[in-house]
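Expect chain and fold; thus:
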Amino acid sequence: MSNTRTYLTGLFLAISSSLFASSAEAEVHETLIHEEEKEAAFNPAEVIMHHIADSHGWHLFDWNDHPVSIPLPVILYTEKGLVVFSSSKFHHDAEGHHVVEAGGQRFVNIHEKIYYASDVANEHGAFAEMDHETHEVSNASPWDISITKNVAALLFSAFVILMLFLPAARSYKKNPGVAPTGVAGFVEPLVVFVRDDIAKNNIGPHYKRFVPMLLTMFFFIWINNLLGLVPFFPGGANVTGNIAVTMVLAVVTFVVTNVNGNKHYWGHIFWMPGLPVAVKPLLAIVEFIGIFTKPFSLMIRLFANITAGHIIVLSLVSLVFIFETVWVSPASVLLTLFISVLELLVAALQAYIFTLLTALYIGAAMHEEHH
């Protein structure tokens, strides 16, 4: 009887421990599956930021889960001189980083930033040391002067502008005094609008020498804004949503404004007339800072408005994948269509505002003192 009780007790303990182990193993397995699903879940922020960022290739579409892209030239100024190769030469290492050997050197592309690759792969099989929490890479970087997606789109927009204005110029040259037709007929109202309503009204008698610059600014910003709204090649690049592009436009405004500033303009900045002497030094500091804040506001306004438009449209499209149901798609499509139509207005409005404020700043710098 004692042996039977001992046997049954041992059997109970063995079964209990087995069930407990199985339960714990199942719980661990379920947790691992949950973590894998969580990692594999759709991340809208990552998709959106990847879309609006610049890249070394022009993505067209996916075919059988493989991206189809137009490779672009990678141009690097390295410690050993200039290195040029196609972005299609990048291949993946163990951690999914893009690695290439060119010019006797190895480079790695991490989130579209190119670094010198390590001579030997680390314990994870990667050729770069990266902090996965902060995404900071410790490897050194060469000077990257590549023809990226934004640069290629910028060159394409310049080609479009030439195709608009060269035929118009030839038409005016061949038929002076005749009402323009075709491309010239489309371009003329916009040119007259920029010349008369923006340049002449805000700059004054000397407006004519600034009209070419203002026309270039207006059409460059407008056409790139429109191309950024086209979801397929050759559109989709976020040129005017790139802070470097808007910064260059703002620097042009800054230089032209202050180079053409007259004595009256600089006098109002550093020694404003008609005010107590005690107040003038303080106002001089404020006015001097204003010289830089005006073009800075131009840069941020254009960058923020265009980038925000892309983010809103992509966020609305992402709703279908976030909720994982087709019933969200009607609302998502209608809202996306509404925002896209609104962005057509924003594209023209931002070009107009940037050009108008540039003309205002130049006009204020050249304004003559009234006695």
